[in-house]
Amino acid sequence: MPSPRVGIAPEAARRQELSLLGLVFLATFSVGLNATMMNVALPSVSADLGATATQSSWTLLVYGLVSTGLLIPFGHLADVVDRRRLFLSAVVLTTVGGVVVAAAPTPWLLVGGRGIQAVGGAVLLTNAAVILAGVFPGARLGRAMGVYLAGFSTGHVVGPVVAGV
Q1: What is the C-alpha separation between 52 and 50, in angstroms, rounded?
Q2: Are 77 and 119 in contact (CB under 8 A)?
Q3: Residue 114 near residue 59, CB atoms below 8 Å
Q4: pLDDT for res 10
Q5: Alpha-carbon distance 18 to 24, whole Å?
């Protein structure tokens, strides 16, 4: 099948597409991982930080609330701004949120870090789908979206396992 990109050799275009699929898989994997990991780790994290029941509840709730609430606005934003820059910004946000979560000395800082992760996760989920739709035409889009969803699903399964370990 000819390359969908003009001026790029088919082999180079194929490598770029595979690299993009790998990046999208890792991004959606991290979103699934972040969404579920705290479910298992919460008791020990709460005990370590001396969190109240309210703070512990917010630690779990903030990710789902923020990421779900921002999916539609960030989906629109992905249609309006530079997708590559937006995607890379989301990777940075998710990473920064992870660092804040890992180093949080107080329960509310942990909640804040989870909120930052959720913002990055919402951007990654909406933007990755738009990027794939722009790169993979027709039937190939179905396979690319399968990789997108496989990353998300795998992260959801692996998250509690990693947290348990």
Answers
A1: 7
A2: no
A3: yes
A4: 81
A5: 10
Ranges under pLDDT 70 in the chain = 1-8
For 126, the enclosing helix (H) or strand (E) is helix 107-135
Question: What angle (nearest 5°) sits at the alpha carbon of residue 163, between those of residues 161 and 165?
Answer: 70
Contact in structure between 100 and 113 (CB atoms under 8 Å):
yes
CA-CA-CA-CA dihedral for 21, 25, 28, 29, to nearest 10: -170
- For the stretch 31-67, pLDDT in tens is 999 999 999 999 999 999 999 999 999 999 999 999 9
Q: Which of 81-111 are b and which e, b meaning 16 or more Cβ less than 10 Å from the residue's Cβ?
A: eebeebbebbbebbeebbebbeebeebeebb
**CA-wise closest residue to 165 among 31, 33, 37, 47:** 37
Distances, alpha carbon 49 to alpha carbons 8, 39, 45, 110, 130, in Å? 53, 16, 6, 9, 39
| Neighbouring residues of 134: CB distance < 8 A, sequence distance ≥ 6 | 83
The rounded distance, in Å, linking the Cα atoms of 161 and 165 is: 6
pTM confidence score: 0.86
Of 66, 32, 46, the closest CA to residue 151 belongs to: 32
